[in-house]
Amino acid sequence: MIYFIETQKFKQWWIWLILLIPFASSIIALYNSPPDFSNSETLFSTIGGLIAVSVTALLLFSFTLKTEINQTGISYRFMPFHFKMKTIEWSEIQDCYVREYKPIMEYGGWGIRYSFKNGKAYNTMGNKGLQLILKNNKQLLIGTQKEEELTKLIEQLKKQNILKANA
Description:
The chain has helices at residues 13-32, 40-62, 103-107, 147-159, and strands spanning 2-9, 64-70, 73-79, 86-89, 93-100, 111-115, 119-123, 128-134, 139-143. It is α+β, with helices and mostly antiparallel strands and 167 residues long.
């Protein structure tokens, strides 16, 4: 039985704007002055730029963070880096709560991030996350856009003793 499921993608408008500017510039440059096929350097640099921006956009579009919480534990997957869900069982978790964090200050941004002080983070946007403190003293933060729903679920799991509060 699944208690919670969330799928997130990079949806920030400014990321897509950053990618759109060089793509649009290359298209405009090709339109205004079609490349001279005899000058392979100009042709390759223009087409190479378009390909690089297109591949970057496709890769960024494929990034997906999926989180599931069920009776076994908390599972997550950050595509295309994880091919299958990684599960942290309830017995491995010392504490778990939803918190507000500073993505840039605490982890250096969004994506798969690591901080010596705060452990690992998987996030795509925003500043809310499910903080896990594991019994082996490792920390993991999984970003969420469903802060209220997740907070209620964690409180319910603690009341039902599925997740032992500060065990």
